[in-house]
Amino acid sequence: MTLALGCIADDYTGASDLANTLTRAGLRTVQTIGVPSDDLALPEVDAVVVSLKSRSIEAGLAVSRSRAADKWLRGRGASHVLFKICSTFDSTDAGNIGPVMDALRADCGEGAVLVTPAFPETGRTVYQGNLFVGAVPLNESPLKDHPLNPMHDSNLVRVLARQSKTQIGLVDLATVTRGADAVRARLAELAGKGIGAAIIDAVFDRDLETIGLVAAEHRLSVGASGIGLGLARALVATGKVKSAAASNEAGAAVGGPAACLAGSCSQATLQQIANAERVMPVLHLDPDRILTGAGEAQRALDWARPRLPEGPVLIASSSTPDQVAALQARHGRDAAGHAIEQTMADIAESLVKSGVRRLVVAGGETSGAVVDRLRIPGFLVGVEIAAGVPVLRAVGAGDEMLLALKSGNFGGAEFFSDALRLMR
Known about the structure:
The longest helix has 21 residues, at about 335-355. The chain has 2 domains: about 5-235, Putative sugar-binding, N-terminal domain (Rossmann fold, 3-Layer(aba) Sandwich), CATH 3.40.50.10840; about 250-420, Molybdenum Cofactor Biosythetic Enzyme, Chain A, CATH 3.40.980. It has helices at about 10-25, 60-75, 95-110, 155-160, 175, 180-190, 205-215, 225-235, 265-275, 285-290, 295-305, 320-330, 335-355, 365-375, 415-420; strands at about 5-10, 30-35, 45-50, 80-85, 115, 125, 130-135, 135, 165-170, 195-200, 220-225, 260, 280-285, 315, 360, 380-385, 390-395, 400-405. The protein is of the alpha/beta class. A 15-stranded mixed sheet has the order 9-10-5-11-4-1-3-2-16-17-18-15-12-14-13, with helices on both faces. It has a 3-stranded antiparallel sheet with strand order 6-7-8, with no helix packed on it.
């Protein structure tokens, strides 16, 4: 297998988002969980997205895992690797975007790396180096309050400079609008000044196509699924990849009970949970009981098992931002997050042992914990449920299973029902 594109994603739902984007653009794509073992049987594909749970871990560990993924991808022919990050640039001043970018750049000998989280289709745009969510700067939007990676500065040149060892430049919208040659010239100018990375503006989808054409000529880029779309279109347009339809095999029915797990505390997920209560049983976990070891996982299983034969159920640990802040004040941010993630993973593992074969998970950290616990090595990418969220079919695992892994802010108001309709 010779890959046209290799990708390293810093969380599992972001990986699914990217894999979905590449599939829609015509690339045959597989998402793996962690760096694949050499004996994992993968179908012939154009792109592999290696999913890592590295966004919120210690920077040195994130670097080592990302470098291992990069080595695996390049060993299978990937001349370009995209380090896929969140479209809200989720990170802290300690990383992990900057440290991972620095390490991958050093390994591949790249000059100046193009960086953009822009994805206009989902309302994420970058102008003069500032990240906007819809019409407002990121630091004025509801998305600024991520429990683990709050983002209170919209200027990405500043944000990345605080966590990278290299100087950070800017390729502005005026340059992008002039086309690929202008971007190439600006990037060469920055590299000549010793600048190792450049935030690049993108406001329209056509900007992504320009960026993709230039990025594909280099060995490394950093960004969200928008730059992935640009890269995929460039590979198809230049004839390096023959456009293919999404795999029908990925969506083949598996039957069996279905369950939904929600760990995200985003406003979108909270509304989706409220809407789901009209059509399926919903259990709200008590985060304080989780932290004190009061048997919340067992309570959830005792509640779910008699209901599963009747239809889907939803189990939620999600809380409002104020509730999250209070919980973290009582127990500590890291301890609270870890305990809740592991409880959701405990529940998922027991549900699957009870026969659940269709599982919808909301929240990046929750999805990572669940998939790790289930030990699923990879997924075939199927049809799109909502922008950035495909149906995923487990590969390399024992029982057939369909999953949907959703970033907190993704999906429409009826996301859980929409997902289950496509997961038969």
